[in-house]
Model the fold of this input.
Amino acid sequence: MNENKPIMGIFERYLTLWVALCIFIGIFLGAYLPEFAQTLDGMSITVNHAPVISIPIAICLFFMMYPIMVKIDFTEVVKAGKSIKPVSLTLIVNWAIKPFTMYAIAYFFLGFVFKQLIGEEAIDLVKMPLGLDLAVGSHYGAGIVVMDEGIKMLSIPLWRSYLAGCILLGVAPCTAMVLVWGELVKGNTGHTLVMVAINSLVMLLLYGVIGGFLLGVGDLPVPWQALLLSISIYVALPLVAGYFSRKWMITYRGLSWFEQKFLPILSPITIVALLFTLVLLFSFKGGVIINNPLTILWIAIPLTLQTLLIFFLTYLAAKLWGFSYENAAPSALIGASNHFEVAIATAVMLFGLSSGAALATVVGVLIEVPLMLCLVKFCQQTKPYFHP
Done:
């Protein structure tokens, strides 16, 4: 490997800047060209006259997810069973702890500490769950069915909509960017890739189950069919495409061509797709942000505390369990990071592009990059405390 080669490309290195720029572009479009996002959001697959899958979002998410999946060597997933401790810690933290601490922290801050600041009477209009057709005025969870521009919607408290977005983030572990964090801390790249693969496979089984359960506990709509459809479209499809295209390219073009020619093309495409999605999201939420810019802060605080809690919990557990630094650092970073691509897409599909839930997932992107860079620095500084 060339030591002079930059680990992060220009898109990854300045992702926080690009995200901030997309916020301003989105707000501008929302104020002066609102038909832009509305037109794109109207390009959707409908079920029972309800928009279920946004075609532009689905395309963007495929290009975000595919580069992660195509990097995975699934033969290494089988071998990972021999490294039982790192695999066990990652699975326990990501699926038995993280979703529930996210729910508890977000509920405490959004439902109690910041509830009056958000507005006790503030409401959000979200999509009706897939296949549900209730009469106007009916109650469903914390919501009431209302008619908005000829379409039945659920009117729910705004803080609960933000809570829903936090839940979807908390139950979506590990992102493409975790591969960058792993390289920056000089961790075990094989372990990081294997954990990305295993988490992606586990998501197929548990994302909808745990996400639906916590949404129900939060007295929010539980669109089970849409949750399962979301995983199929946004995780299973790129997973299958990545597996077969990787196998085909390595067979016919060789591993060297695949790694040196094909993979470098994908990273900027991934980030561009993410940024385009953010422009859409903020074009719808621009009015909310302008009227109440502190909304971002109210959502960011519980998300930040959750990230720090999970990181230090995992890092300490790895130290006590006798991990090497090369396995401990990526394990903690995997636990702390969120699969915000899937969380954004799921929030948009379940609750709508203009929902508070979608905004909360976008805030997750906004805080994750600078926060994870700080945690990377912390790992680098504490490396001497681990045995070689």
In short: The mean pLDDT is 80. The chain has 16 helices and six strands. Residues 39 and 56 are 10 Å apart (CA to CA).
